[in-house]
Amino acid sequence: MSFSPLIVRLMETLRCLPGVGPKSAQRMAMHLLERDREGALALAETLQAAMEGVGRCKRCRTLTETELCAICSSHTRDQRLLCVVETPADVLAIEQAGSYRGYYFVLMGHLSPIDGIGPNDIGAPELLRLLDEIEAEEVILATNPTVEGEATAHYLADQVRRRGLKVSRIAHGVPLGGELEYVDGGTLAHAFAGRREVTA
Amino acid sequence: MSFSPLIVRLMETLRCLPGVGPKSAQRMAMHLLERDREGALALAETLQAAMEGVGRCKRCRTLTETELCAICSSHTRDQRLLCVVETPADVLAIEQAGSYRGYYFVLMGHLSPIDGIGPNDIGAPELLRLLDEIEAEEVILATNPTVEGEATAHYLADQVRRRGLKVSRIAHGVPLGGELEYVDGGTLAHAFAGRREVTA
Ligand SMILES: [Zn+2]
Ligand SMILES: [Zn+2]
User: Fold this and answer.
1) Domains in chain A, please, with CATH?
2) Which of A83, B67, B130, B197 is the least buried, fewest Cβ under 10 Å from its Cβ?
3) Which parts of the sequence are C4-type zinc fingers (chains A, B) (predicted)?
4) Cross-chain residue pair A34–B63, CB shorter than 8 Å
C-alpha cells in the first residue's frame, strides 16, 4: 500500500530536481498538497513559462529571455575586456564580486572528449567570431580549475592568441581569508605550483 | 546585475518547496534550464494535475485522487480496528511497518488552539460519524508524541470512550535497536514515565 498513483507520480517528477531524493520528494509533495497548493500552481506556471521563454543571449550565450542579455545590452561596460566562463552562475558570482567591468562569453560547459563535447558544443566558433567583431583587447579565461576547465582554457588560449589578442587566466589558490588548514589538497597544490617570487 | 527576470522568478517560486533556500533554488533553476527542460515541463504538468486532481478520501480524509482511497476501498482489512493518525505520511509509515491490518482516519493535523485549529478542523465530527457507521471495536490513537499530538489524543479518547468503544494509544519510547546514548531526552523521559513492571 502506498500513496495514490497521482501523488506517486508527483513525488517521482519532483526528483528531476538536483539534490532531491525519495524522502525529500515525499516531504515536498505532502507540503504542497497539504499546505501550499497556490505555491505549487505558481511553480507549475513559472516552470512552463521559463522553459518556453528562456533561451540564450545571441552574443554571450548566457541564459536569458531577451535576444541580448542585460550585460550585453549595456553600453557602460569596458569593451576592451571579454571574460570567458563555463556557466551563467559563474557570471553572477563574478558580478557579485563587483570588480570586473567588461563583457562575458558563456561556454555553457567545458570541453569533454569522453562525453563527445568538442569546441563547437562550447561555442568556440561564436567566441572567435565575436572577437573579430568587437574591440576586445584582452580575453580573460575564467573556466574552473578542474582538468576539463584547464584543458578548455588551454584550447581557447591557443585560438585567441592566434588572433593577436592578449590572453590571461584568473589566478587560483588559497582563498583570501582562508586558513591553509581547511583548504583542499588540490587547491594547495595549485597554490604552490603557481607561486610567485617575492621581490624586495 | 543578476539573472534575467524570468529566471529570477523561477528561482523565487522554487522556494515554495520545503528545505529549498536561495542557493538550492539557483542550482535547481540552472540545472533545469541547462540540462533538463523535459523534466521541468513534466514537473509543471504533474504539479498542475496533482493540485487539481488530488482531494481527500471521503471516508478517512487522506489525500487521494479517487473518492475512496485504496485502503478504504479494500475489503480485506480488519474492520474492528481504526487507527487515527495526523498525516498521510503516517499512514504510509505504518503500512510499511506491515503489522497493522485495520483502517485509518487521517486528521490532517492536530488540535492547536493558538492557531485556531479546533475539533472541526481535524475532522472530529467525521470521525465520530464514521464510528457510528462501521463495526470498529477499538480506536488506536497514533498521533505524534508532541504536546499537540498528546492533547489531540486526549480529546479524541474522551469522545470515543463516550461511544462505548475501546481506545488505545500506541507506545512511545526508545526505538527498537536504538542505543540509549543516542535517543533524545524527551523520548527517554517518555520511556521512563511509561515504564512497565517486569513480572516473573
Ligand atoms: Zn549576453
Ligand atoms: Zn480512505
Assistant:
1) 5-53 (1.10.8.420), 63-197 (3.40.1360.10)
2) B197
3) 57-72
4) yes
